[in-house]
């Protein structure tokens, strides 16, 4: 039995991991898929006080309050920011890190700075109120049909301060022995290409890439569970 924490990306919530979480739970693992503050069913907590530190605490507190050790910590997209921050604080309790098309920031970087630093990035919608970044159409995540409509109904605006606050890291998270980066090339994001290449060039990482959609954990949860099984369990 493993302790697995699944962290969603921008505009999403813990709901996006439902298919993966159900399968992992059925296999006997303890699974947690927290929704970050200000999003999903916690969207009523949206405020200018919700910054990256709050999202890091959202992840770290699940590990601390559930008294989890040997954690497999999984990040999707923006979720790489709070996951890296939490892993840096609790590296001795993390057995494996999995970044699915996700940020792996350096100390002092913000998600917005990383996005804008690489030529070819797609800018986010400018928040009219200076706070709420509107979600893009679900189709950009590689979704169609009923799943597209399901995600369209559930996505919520994302708190801008979480994307603009620079992360503060000691570098402790680099000591996690098992690290995997998965690049889904159907999603155009040159910054994720750069993260994948860095992982591919580093013997401490396992790097995988193919013509997958950004939300492959939703479109093919069986595949994603198989990936976790092969590389972390």
Protein model, in words:
By secondary structure, the chain is α/β, with parallel strands linked by helices. The chain has one domain: Alpha/Beta hydrolase fold, catalytic domain (Rossmann fold), CATH 3.40.50. Helix content is 34%, strand content 16%. The chain has helices at residues 18-26, 52-65, 80-89, 111-117, 145-154, 161-164, 190-200, 216-219, 221-231; strands spanning 3-7, 30-32, 71-76, 94-100, 132-133, 158-159, 178-184, 205-210. The protein has a six-stranded parallel sheet, sandwiched between helices. Strands 5-6 form a two-stranded antiparallel sheet. Strand 3 (71-76), helix 3 and strand 4 form a beta-alpha-beta unit. Helix 1 crosses helix 9 and helix 2 crosses helix 3. The longest helix is centred in the N-terminal third of the chain and has 14 residues, at 52-65.
